[in-house]
Amino acid sequence: MRLPAPNGPARMRTLAAALPEALESGFRAGRKLARPLAGDGLRFVAVGMGGSGIAADLARGVVDAESRASLSIVRSPEIPRWVDAQVEVLLVSYSGDTWETLVAYDAARRAGARRTVVTSGGALRERAEADGVPVLAVPPGLPPRSAVGHLLGGVLGLLAPTFPESLESRVARTAKATRARIREYARERGPAAALAQKVGPRLPFVYAENSFVPLARRWKTQVEENAKRLAVFDEVPELFHNALVGWDAVARADAARSIAVLLEWPGESPLVRKSFRYLERLLRSKGVASARALLPSHDRLEALVGGIALGDHVSLFLADRDGVDPYPVDAIVRLKSSIGATAPPRRR
User: Fold this and answer.
1) Which of 17, 27, 64, 62 is nearest to 302 (CA)?
2) For the chain, N or C: smaller number of CB within 10 Å?
3) Contact 167, 159 (CB under 8 A)
């Protein structure tokens, strides 16, 4: 893929458009590396931070709902104490130098767990190759958040044997549908631009039903990294047992500063749909704006990937609106420089 440079907005749009091809490429690579299921080997832990962690989290929504596997997500260097030889730990770090993931790599070894590394290089790949740990290599040179297709496809490929039916044709179908949708989302008068215009300067609260909560998190983080502004995410139906009280009490003076963005899936339960409509009515009575973002398919995987594409383009149009370059993430670079978050030494 030839990337335009040094124009940040154009480069990020090119990367966003490459999502379908990256998904297919990652899935093929992961499927080749997938281990045959043995005994009760259906417990997986994925360790990752930032754009790497979100890829595994996105996969979890599909895995939990449709496969026989249990996939836990860890966003820290500490792995659960129950991890043992019956658990496979997926260590996902796009750069390969994320210190939290490197620490977890050693912790998984001490726990006797099976390990698979997903990375583009760095210290993590070096350690894995030296230890004989399988490596799912993804293309280097991308912002980690733009590697989501490779990473998501890779994780799904690794876990493909746990699904009752083959994912291969489904991934291909999803990629084909997403290509068409991206052409629509990229248009200046398309649905992504319209949603960004509706969000405007407001603080977006992105809400989704439980199995699409990782997608809501992805929208939040894309707004933060691409548009350089804060966002919030929460899950349904949980928010109706707490956040609803906050919205009920919101002052009208604060209402204009927020907007609820509802990620709605055609396959969601009637009760969830009724709850969303109740929330809309409550928000309207308080003068709070809301916007619906319909995920584009009854198929969970297709809806997920289409939702990633839509959210990415909304965040890019928000960046355009605010006149910011979506490519750099200087605050993260400064943090790593400040705390010296480089690859820690191997711990024995």
Assistant:
1) 62
2) C
3) no
Of 225, 198, 226, the closest CA to residue 292 belongs to: 198
pLDDT given for residue 147 in this prediction: 97
If you compute the radius of gyration of the chain from its CA atoms, what whole number of angstroms results?
20
The mean pLDDT of 296-313, rounded to a whole number, is 97
Place of tokens 């458009």: 17
Q: How confident is the model at residue 342 (pLDDT cuts 50, 70, 90)?
A: low
| C-alpha–C-alpha distance, residues 59 and 144, integer Å | 16
Instruction: For the chain, give the percent of residues with pLDDT over 90.
Output: 88
Whether 8-170+331-339 shares its CATH topology with 181-322 is answered: yes
Name residue 31's amino acid. R
Residue 336: pLDDT band (50, 70, 90) is: confident
Q: What residues contact residue 151 under an 8 Å CB cut-off, 6+ apart?
A: 26, 51, 52, 55, 56, 92, 94, 118, 138
Specify the CATH architecture of the domain 8-170+331-339. Answer: 3-Layer(aba) Sandwich (3.40)
Identify any residues that bridge with 18 across adjacent strands, giving them in sequence order. Answer: none
pLDDT-derived band at 64, boundaries 50, 70, 90: very high
Output the pTM of the full model.
0.94
Specify whether the CB–CB gap between 94 and 155 falls below 8 A: no
Six token digits for residue 46 = 């994925």
> Is domain 181-322 in CATH 3.40.50.10490, yes or no?
yes
How many other CB atoms are found less than 10 A from the CB of residue 140? 13
DSSP code at position 160: G
Residue 283 has pLDDT above 60, yes or no: yes
Q: How do residues 95-122 score in pLDDT, each as one tens digit?
A: 999 999 999 999 999 999 999 999 999 9
Q: What's the DSSP call for residue 329?
A: -
Q: Decide if 37 contacts 131 (C-beta within 8 A).
A: no
Cα 36 to Cα 162: distance, rounded to the nearest angstrom: 9
CA trace torsion 273, 279, 284, 289 (10° rounding): -90
Q: Write down the domain spans for the chain.
A: 8-170+331-339, 181-322
| Structural contact between residues 84 and 112, judged by C-beta atoms closer than 8 angstroms | yes
